[in-house]
Amino acid sequence: MTSTKRRTAAGLALALTLGLTGMPAQAEDDVIKVRLMGSDLAADIARASVHACRERGYQVSAVVLDRAGDIIALQRDTLARRHTLEIAERKAGVVVLAGVDSGQMRDNRGDIRPELNHMQGLIIMTGGVQIRAAGSLIGAVGVSGAPGGDIDADCAEAGIEAVSERLDFAE
Asked: 39-168: what CATH class?
């Protein structure tokens, strides 16, 4: 038997032994399936979020981040201040970091809120909402500009609700 065949046989025997002892096989995490949000879906969420606030009389911005925290879509209503874009992005950034809505993160981690607010790309304020498809976090939408984070969050949720059928049937 050649040395290559011996090493292969020894490796196979070791893998079988480890498999029998309950240790996970390395091959299980060699390929990881990931759900990604398309730009059209993200744009529709941003647009619907802004329109939901507009219907309530508020000029806001909405920023949609993908699961990695990168901007995939944004929309600023006509009279929304330019700073609302940055705040909306930072609210969504908290959601990507924590995997929960920014308001929940604010409630859960008031003890470190001042420190987190100094981190680039984060702000611990209500108004960032998770975007999930088939149970997986695929991104977040942050809204800013309404007089209160609870209204921002309502508009973000309305934006997601507007595309919920597309999210519900994602495989």
From this structure: alpha beta
